[in-house]
Known about the structure:
CATH topology of the largest domain: Hnrnp arginine n-methyltransferase1
Amino acid sequence: MQGVPYTGAEMSEAIDHDIELATDQFMAGRLQEAWTACRRVLDAKPLHAQALHLAGLISYQLDRAAEALDYLDQAIAVNPADPSVHNSRGSIFYQLGRYAEAEPAFRQAITHGGDLVDPHINLGNALFAQGRPADAEACFRTAIGLAPGNAGAHNNLGTALRAQGRGDDAVAAFRQALLLRPTDLEARYNLGDALLAQMQLEESEACFRYVITHQPRFVPAHAGLGQTLYHQHRIDEAIEVLDRAAAQAPDHPVLDYARRLAYGLRVPAGYPTMLTDQRRNDAFDAAIARAVAVNDLVLEIGTGSGLFALMAARAGAGHVITCENNQVLARVAGEIVARNSLADRIAVVPTISTRLRVGIDLKRRADVLIFELVTPGFLAPNALTYLKHAKAELLRLEASIIPRAITVHAVLVESETVKRRHPMGEVKGFDLAPFDRLCQPGAARIDLASEPHRRLSAAFAALTLDFRQPIALEGSRTDSVPVTADGLCHGVAFWLVLHLDDTTDYTSAPDDHPGTHLKQALHIFPEPRPLRAGDLLTVTARYDNTRLVFEPDG
């Protein structure tokens, strides 16, 4: 009968046929065929309520929302007691994000069909979207009362309960939804998310893995799994999961937050500040440009962001081998190298430098070594071991080393405010000394430009290490320091000068360059020393492969 004009005798039968045809085509997603059949009915009978309803649904699927709502309004005018039309009208408003308009439509559906489950669920969703979880809960409970076996109602109830901070009740609701429909991925994800909030991590992990197995591109499940692993201190696994998900959705905000949490435990907090220290970058860039000749082989220890390796390649290096034992930094550095189209000349090796071998990792001994294994309190732990190994096993005898030397400058200081923090002692009458075990060891990082303090001496060169000479893994230097002011000496404040080559230095001195990322460090004496101007205080700067300390005489 399709395409044949209606006649009076056939009209009723033809309309029924076209309504059935339009419905079948609509359900099958063949919208134009459904629309053609539906329009034949409306051309013959413009006030056919069922056809108007169907025309509204088809129009919405064809992205004609205003037209869809107009058809539904006409259908309601013809048959105002049909709850399904009110429900459809509310659903369109809901999908358009017009939740306040969806609410009365769903209420009308309930008025005319109170024993129908869907309008109660839909009203609950509209109320929840308006920030009314308690009202939504009541709707979902009504739906469950009408249809206890409706898994979706139990899942939505769990969402409303969780929004009210009722975690245990939410978990129970999600479990009931899964009992009714074990393959419900939304309920499984929601259960995992609720369990994560309660730190029930093993079951939460299992939920997220189930969802990912059945829907690999569902990014929130990856983010949830990453956070679950993070809270189990399985940081490297968390990063691997989150990185895979980021390849699918690089701009997903929840995923980005979870990645930053995990990465933050693997990357020192001061890295962004270091990378934007323009003086540092200019100094190293100049020294690297002078040291690197065309086709040189350059070795970098501790790649970080890969910035110095990029500088070396730009300076003309034929190849750069840069190693990084921090797997997160190594991975990111590799991305940065590729992003700058230098992967053919820069190899990021994710290992510690003492595992590198000439003939395997390096085709020959390197012409230039770059390393910046420094901290505010001197050198990074074992930096001298890495340097000693590189000189013995990885570098040519005449290789350039950047920096070529380091000098520590120091000054005697009085600073009661810093003394109160390092080490931790009494706070408001309570002994908090055990908290010191949670603080970073060694000298305390400070900013002399902002810390209240008094200098009790002029600055003096406390220690110099020339990296071109044989490396001693421990040593000391003693100075008699003239005291220039009366005061109570709490310790020694000190800073670094990196001699990058014979021309360029980079210093963290507080007076000339207060903007340096390194700032300064403070070694607190075990007991403060009262000093008078004109005194001489003998101070020994003693270093080993992990730290630098200052010891006053006596």
